[in-house]
């Protein structure tokens, strides 16, 4: 039996329906909230939809990002150094929502900052701020009671990660409470390192489609507009994170200041990725 | 507080000790974690596995090590009768090897061909490198660069044993960062790699598995105390970082109501100075989720993990094994603490009165013994787990004493 979305009427579901109607895949962009400072981060966030991001993953910085490679580790530390917190991340989402009512925002991070905030208060605050979904790396289905089920009850999607190690036997369990879309982590590894082959991605997406009616986004290791386009041919969305975060890091000078034009440069790169994704099935 | 019928039945099938423990890992690792759990369960039921482990602990590690009556120290403190469980006499000089023997046998049984581990003080790294040499398996040890700087002798030992020591520069370059990096390696090399976690923490089944492999400590104490004194000990004392030597000593006695137990955390420059100055997760932290389990953690208001401090590189982990968190909450074990200075004083006292240079980790336990023993009657039998020897620490102790080596 294929899994379906328990939160069928959501900003995420509407966005994927619109993409389907357009006959194209979406671009999901990741930035870390507050990297390198709250103002620049907000400017990048606010500029993402106009440059072609269809969905936004906003990283909640954590001191110990166990599943992330050097680029996102460094971005988390920059954000924390600039004073970023869960509360300020939610404020960023509120700021974004003043100008954009349609682009889904998915918070991505690790469980402990949410645990420290308190699951129920966090979910209420996140929903109120305009958060649509959560991706929490260290919560596998075995720990669904911690956050996934309360999130679904609060009307916040819980986007599950599936990986090359998720086998057929495990798939129904992994799919059971997932909502919004399924995020296929295309390599066994950490963010921003190796890239999977197109054949491997094709096969994995086909396998996932046998188990779910939800959209499938593919991420980890997509660094260029061409790679994003390749993924966009077979998947419902391509996720780019480390490459964008690295562009942002390139705009930081030796003393930690942000060089002029950095926001434009990052958004320009997102525009190139979006062009790649949009041309993929042309 | 309600008394439980048993304190030894945990964890449940999902790896929980009360609210603590669990399996908070990325999906990539989850199938492997389940595989480790299944393989471990089967191994424990296989007499051949148990037999090989016992044989190696005897012939290679040198077990049983003595339960030694510390007569001069007892006289000097003038109270309880103090025994040392001499884990520092094990091959490689600490209790860590007990667990490494068990885990590498499991890795072989699972057909894994590459071993990774994290290390703080280097004791677990040395023990892992040792068993990898013994079983001819490639070995990568992750160690924070700060720890590398303060534990040079152990770094060299690991290299001599054929291990690759990878310096970890992220975070503050200590044990938690080394564990993050080991997890990143594991997630990238799931097919062929086994992660030998060094303490009774991490995702289920590690806390239970490490505890079981370390329980040889408490099992021997029980037998030896019976032989030497004809009864059970009255109290057990052990230092607690992640808490593997402590849980190994305590666990076999948890259901003996007359046996009192004390875990000693590292209070660094003093708990009152705040969480950047100590590494006492229970006494100065609160529950959170890190490295695969829910447990007491040093963290700020926002749930960001803080870097603990201790003079002892083996204790400055910002968490503690989940079973300890539970034993604290249910009130079965008392968790005390000792400062850097108290540990340094105990370190020197032990050297001069008993002719034993203890690890700085174990010196924290001894500091608690020094506080307690004088107030207790002479027939009170107190056991300290002397978890490791202090050769590795002489450079940092010399530095603190203002001596140039």
UniProtKB/TrEMBL annotation, chain A:
Keywords: Amino-acid biosynthesis, Aromatic amino acid biosynthesis, Lyase, Tryptophan biosynthesis
CC annotations in GO: cytosol
Name of the protein described by the UniProt record: Tryptophan synthase alpha chain
PROSITE patterns noted in UniProt: TRP_SYNTHASE_ALPHA (PS00167)
Domain of life: Bacteria
Gene Ontology MF term list: tryptophan synthase activity
Catalysed reactions, as listed in the record: (1S,2R)-1-C-(indol-3-yl)glycerol 3-phosphate + L-serine = D-glyceraldehyde 3-phosphate + L-tryptophan + H2O
Pathway the protein takes part in: Amino-acid biosynthesis; L-tryptophan biosynthesis; L-tryptophan from chorismate: step 5/5
Function, as annotated: The alpha subunit is responsible for the aldol cleavage of indoleglycerol phosphate to indole and glyceraldehyde 3-phosphate.
Stated family: Belongs to the TrpA family.
Quaternary structure and partners: Tetramer of two alpha and two beta chains.
Ribonucleoprotein found in the keyword field: no
NCBIfam families: trpA
Enzyme Commission (EC) number: 4.2.1.20
Coiled coil: none
Keyword Amino-acid biosynthesis: yes
Active site positions, chain numbering: 57 (proton acceptor), 68 (proton acceptor)
Automatic annotation (TrEMBL), chain B:
InterPro entries named in the record: Trp_synth_b_CS (IPR006653), Trp_synth_beta (IPR006654), Trp_synth_beta/beta-like (IPR023026), TrpB-like_PALP (IPR001926), TrpB-like_PALP_sf (IPR036052)
Tree of life domain: Bacteria
Domain Tryptophan synthase beta chain-like PALP: 62-388
Pfam families from the UniProt entry: PALP
Modified residues (N6-(pyridoxal phosphate)lysine): 96
Pathway(s) where this gene product acts: Amino-acid biosynthesis; L-tryptophan biosynthesis; L-tryptophan from chorismate: step 5/5
Catalysed reactions listed for this entry: (1S,2R)-1-C-(indol-3-yl)glycerol 3-phosphate + L-serine = D-glyceraldehyde 3-phosphate + L-tryptophan + H2O
PANTHER family: TRYPTOPHAN SYNTHASE, TRYPTOPHAN SYNTHASE-RELATED
Family: Belongs to the TrpB family.
Quaternary structure (record): Tetramer of two alpha and two beta chains.
The name this protein goes by in its record: Tryptophan synthase beta chain
Species assigned in the record: Azospirillum oryzae
């Amino acid at each position: 039996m294929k899994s379906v979305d328990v939160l069928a009427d959501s900003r995420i579901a509407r966005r994927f329906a619109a993409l389907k109607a357009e006959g194209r895949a979406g671009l999901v962009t990741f930035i870390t909230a507050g990297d390198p400072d709250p103002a620049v981060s907000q400017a990048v966030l606010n500029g993402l939809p106009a440059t072609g991001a269809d969905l936004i993953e906003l990283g909640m910085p954590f001191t110990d990002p166990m599943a992330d490679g050097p680029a996102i580790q460094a971005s988390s530390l920059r954000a924390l150094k600039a004073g970023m917190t869960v509360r300020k991340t939610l404020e960023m989402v509120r700021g974004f929502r003043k100008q954009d009512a349609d682009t889904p925002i998915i918070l991505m991070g690790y469980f402990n900052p949410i645990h420290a905030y308190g699951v129920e208060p966090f979910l209420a605050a996140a929903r109120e701020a305009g958060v649509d979904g959560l991706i929490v790396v260290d919560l596998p289905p075995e720990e669904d009671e911690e956050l996934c089920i309360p999130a679904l009850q609060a009307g916040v999607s819980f986007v599950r990660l599936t990986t090359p190690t998720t086998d057929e036997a495990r798939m129904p369990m992994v799919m059971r409470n997932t909502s919004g879309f399924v995020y296929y982590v295309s390599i066994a590894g950490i963010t921003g390192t190796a890239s999977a082959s197109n054949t491997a991605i094709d096969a994995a997406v086909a396998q996932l489609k046998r188990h779910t009616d939800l959209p499938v986004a593919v991420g980890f290791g997509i660094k260029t507009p061409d790679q994003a386009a390749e993924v966009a041919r077979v998947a419902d969305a391509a996720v780019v994170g480390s490459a964008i975060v690295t562009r942002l890091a390139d705009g930081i000078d030796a003393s930690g200041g942000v060089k002029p034009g950095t926001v434009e440069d990052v958004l320009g790169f997102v525009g190139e990725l979006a062009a790649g994704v949009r041309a993929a099935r042309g | 507080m309600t008394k439980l019928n048993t304190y030894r039945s945990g964890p449940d099938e999902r790896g929980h000790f009360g609210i603590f423990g669990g399996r908070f890992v990325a999906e990539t690792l989850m199938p492997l974690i389940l595989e480790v759990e299944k393989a471990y369960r089967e191994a424990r039921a296989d007499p051949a596995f148990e037999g090989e482990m016992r044989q190696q602990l005897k012939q290679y590690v040198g077990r049983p090590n003595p339960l030694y009556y510390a007569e001069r120290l007892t006289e000097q403190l003038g109270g309880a009768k103090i025994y040392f469980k001499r884990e520092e006499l094990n091959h490689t000089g600490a209790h860590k090897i007990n667990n490494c023997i068990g885990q590498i046998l499991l890795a072989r049984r699972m057909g894994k061909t590459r071993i990774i581990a994290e290390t703080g003080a280097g004791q677990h790294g040395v023990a892992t490198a040792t068993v990898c040499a013994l079983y001819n398996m490639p070995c990568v040890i992750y160690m924070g660069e700060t720890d590398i700087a303060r534990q040079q002798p152990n770094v060299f030992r690991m290299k001599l044993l054929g291990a690759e020591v990878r310096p970890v520069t992220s975070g503050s370059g200590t044990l938690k960062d080394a564990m993050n990096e080991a997890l990143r390696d594991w997630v990238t090399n799931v097919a062929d790699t086994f992660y030998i976690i060094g303490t009774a923490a991490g995702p289920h089944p590690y806390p239970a598995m490490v505890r079981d492999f370390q329980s040889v400590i408490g099992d021997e104490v029980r037998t030896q105390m019976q032989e030497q004194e004809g009864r059970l000990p009255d109290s057990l004392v052990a230092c607690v970082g992640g808490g593997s030597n402590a849980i190994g000593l305590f666990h076999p006695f948890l259901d003996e109501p007359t046996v009192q137990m004390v875990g000693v955390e590292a209070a660094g420059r003093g708990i009152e100075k705040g969480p950047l100055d100590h590494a006492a997760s229970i006494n100065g932290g609160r529950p959170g989720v890190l490295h695969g389990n829910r447990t007491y953690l040093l963290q700020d208001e926002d749930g960001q993990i803080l870097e603990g401090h201790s003079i002892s590189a083996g204790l400055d982990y910002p968490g503690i094994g989940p079973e300890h968190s539970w034993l604290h909450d249910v009130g079965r074990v008392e968790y005390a603490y000792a400062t850097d200075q108290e540990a340094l004083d105990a370190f020197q006292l032990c050297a001069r009165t008993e002719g034993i240079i203890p690890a700085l980790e174990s010196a924290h336990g001894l500091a608690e013994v020094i506080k307690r023993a004088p107030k207790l009657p002479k027939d009170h039998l107190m056991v300290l787990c002397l978890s490791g020897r202090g050769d590795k620490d002489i450079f940092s102790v010399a530095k603190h004493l203002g001596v140039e080596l």
